[in-house]
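#dry-run=false #mode=assembly
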Amino acid sequence: MRTSSPALDFEALYRATRDDVYAYAATLLRDRAAAEDVTAAAFERAYRKQRTYKAARGSERAWLFGIARNAALDELRRRKRSAALAAEPADVEAAPPEDAAEAALRRAAVRVALARLEGRERELIALKFHAGLDNSEIAAVLGVSVSNAGTQLHRAMTKLREAVEHA
Amino acid sequence: MPELTPEIERELAALDDALAGRRVAPDLTELGELALTLRDERPRPSESFGRSLDERMERGFSEEDPRSTRATRSGRRWWSVLLSAPAIGSATAVLFVAAIVIVAPSGDDETGGSAGSMSAAQEASGGAAAGGGGGAAESARSSASDSAGGAAAAAPQAATDSAEPLPPDSVPPVPARGSPGSDRRNVRKVERSASLTLAARPRDIDTVSARIQEETRRQGGFVVSSKVSASPGGGEGYFQLRIPTRNLDAAMAALSRLANVRERAQSQQDITAEVVSARSRLKDARTERKSLLRQLGEADTPTETESIRRRLDIVAREIQAARAGLRRVDNRAAFSTVSVTLVADRGVGAAGGGSDDDWTPGDAARDALRVLEVAAGVALIVLAVLLPLALLAGLAAIAARWTRRRRREQALDAV
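#status=ok
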């Protein structure tokens, strides 16, 4: 295996973010198979470009998610289709049997509301809640200012709350 | 984008608090619960995919991996094209400079100077005419020369053929003997002329001038006119030479070796028709004189005799003029006019054929300066080519990046 750049412990980054990248891609694409492809592509690209990482430009996670975002958008352009994740079989882990009925209903409402959001809004939700990025990292990934990222996130959350209420 | 309002900042902080497990303000409890629900709804990869990706990670995402995605491969192709742009630009610049070096006439290379000023056709026909030009006077010339002369004579014939193509079954008319259209290469007369510009160091002007005249005599020619001026800082010379046509090529080569050739050109003209015309005039005058002499013998009266004698005097002058005309036109074919211009140039090396013994440190310094000048010139040309190319490549890369980013964002809008 290729040795990692001293500035970037790629293996550690991979271990820490593998599931986050997948979660982001799956939420954005709403297609598990496509999300797997994009996740693999993102790590492959990042692995090959790891020497280009500059710590001064942002965190390792922001750098990686920038690559993952490009891979996801390339996939969107290529496929020109998106199978709704909500239409896929429910994740057993996501709905444990001991959950109360009200909580299950709320989860379902959130899932439906999330699916109704526009791509950009859903991407913000994915980066914040599924990938676990903070606002500055989201700003770095999207190439906008932190305040702009915060404003967009707030707008997406407002829209999501409204959609949940109407779901 | 305006700054975040306090309310927005408060709600964003509540989201972070909820995700971090901290207490959220009572009026934002619902928002905090939504954040936790969203986090719980996070998709998780299947175990099989996780294992597969871990294995690929362990292998370092090798190239031959069958799961290399198309998106990744296309990305590499795109970047490889971008990365190769400077290489393409450099190769183009090198080719451009090489083309300039090859095409530009070189003063240091006498053959290069010739190639720069003579067309291929001129060179071929010029060399051929050397054989054919003396064909009349030297009818027993070797077959090699004859064939060369034939090439020269064939050129105008070929031009005629292309202008008026004959049907395949027709027989072309045989041109009259000695006419311009005739293919009688043995009797063709060609007038040749050449010009040569030589560059020598100022102090070599006198030496090279003397050698030009010496070489002219050695080739059997003579100097028609010459004008030479030399000074410590410069000088120039102009020579009008007449060289036997059969020695023209050898003379040009010898003269070219005397200094650096700046320019060399040759031209030729078929004057067979003028020769034929001069001969005809002479022949006609001689025929008339014979006739007059016969009439003189048969004259009966003194008046008739006196008239024929006056006529004979006129014809005798015509014969003399016709002979002179024939000699002139023969001379035009037998001797070629060579114009040699000699110019002073500090940058050139020692005159050709000179000894290297007089090569001084000053010469070395000048040569070194010259080398630096040439190197700087080449560097400037390369820079002039590479700079716009690099600029264009940079702009293209920026435009491509912007376009790609825009297309990606558009893809997001379509979700």
